[in-house]
Acid phosphatase Class B
Amino acid sequence: MTLAGIAWTVRDFCIISQSRFRSFEETSSALQSFDSDNKIPFFPNTSPKIPRKTLNSIPCFPPNSFPHSLFFQIPPKKHKSKRSLLSAMNLLNLLFLFSILSPVAFANTKLDPHLLPRPLILEYPENLNIEGGGGGGGGGEDDIVFRCTAWRFAVEANNVSPWKKIPFECLDYVKNYMMNKGYALDLEMVANEAGFFARNVELGGDGKDVWVFDIDETLLSNLPYYAQHGFGLEIFNSNLFDKWVDMARAPAIESSLKLYKEVLDLGFKVFLLTGRSEGQRAVTVDNLKNAGFENWDRLILRGQDDQGKTATIYKSERRSEMLKEGYRILGNSGDQWSDILGFSMSNRSFKLPNPMYHIP
Ligand SMILES: [Mg+2]
C-alpha cells in the first residue's frame, strides 16, 4: 500500500467512525459498502487493509477540536447534506494527516529552499571566510582587530591577570580605541549606569553613605602621558610617570566629572582613594581642582605603611576602616579590578575601561 493509500484509508476511517459508526467492524463495513456502492467518491487507493490495532491507535481529532477560522467555516445550513459534512471533515483530517506524514513523504526529496519562508535563517555572505573564526588560521588586518578585541575583552573581564604591557600587535588597536569614540563611549556607559544606581539607591540620611572614587583613569586621565609612551606598550616607568603627575596637568574624564557632581548633589560622602603616595598630595589636589573636582570629603593616599602592599590589599584595608567608622560604602568607581575587589567591598562597583595597564 502506498503512503497516499495509507493516508486516505486512515482519513476515511476517522471520518466515518466519527460521523456515523463507532466500532471497527461498522467502520470497515461502511468503507466497503460506501466504496462498492459508490456513494462517496473515495480516493482510488482507499482500502481498509490496515490492521485494526493500527487504525484504532490513530488519533482521530473531532472536527470541532480544530480552530475552524484557520481553515474554513462550514456554512450553517439546515439542509446541509451528510455528504457535505463528510467532505468538510475529510478536509480537516486530511490537513492533519498531511502535517504528520509530509515529513516522511518528502524526506528524500530535494526541495528548493527558496520556496520556503526564511525570515529566521541568518546567512553568511558568500565571500565571508569563517575558517579562522575559532582562533586559528586567518590573518590580515581584520584578524588582528578580532584578536585584539578578544584580548581587550579578556582584560576588562579580569580573565587576563596579571599582565605587564599590551601585546605588540595591538598597539594600533589600543591607540585607535583610546583616541577615538570607543573609549569615550565606554566611559560614558559606565558613568551613566553608575548615575542611575546613585539616583535610585536609598540613602540613610545620616551622612554615612559613601561613594569611593579612584583617581587615575577614573577621575583624571593620563592619556596624554600614555600617548607618549606607547599606550601601554612600554613597561611602566614610575620615574617618568611621577614627573607627569607633578605637572598636575591631567585632564578630567568628563563623564566621571558629571557623575562626581551628581553623587555629591545626591548627598553622598565622596572619598577619593588613590594609589598615589602621600608625597603627591599637593600636586594631586592641584590637579583635581584644575580639572573641576572639588568638595571631596576625604582624600586617601598611600602612606609609609602602605608601601609594598598590593593595591587590592591597600584599598581593601582603607575601605575596612571606613566601615569601622560607621560609613556605608554604596558605590565604588575604579579603572582597575584592584580598586573594587578584595574585602570590605561596596554595595555596587563600577569598572571603568582601561586596556593600557594593569595594577594588581
Ligand atoms: Mg586608576
Q: What stands out?
A: Residues 82-105 form the longest helix (24 residues). The first strand starts at residue 209 and ends at 213. Residues 3-107 form one domain.
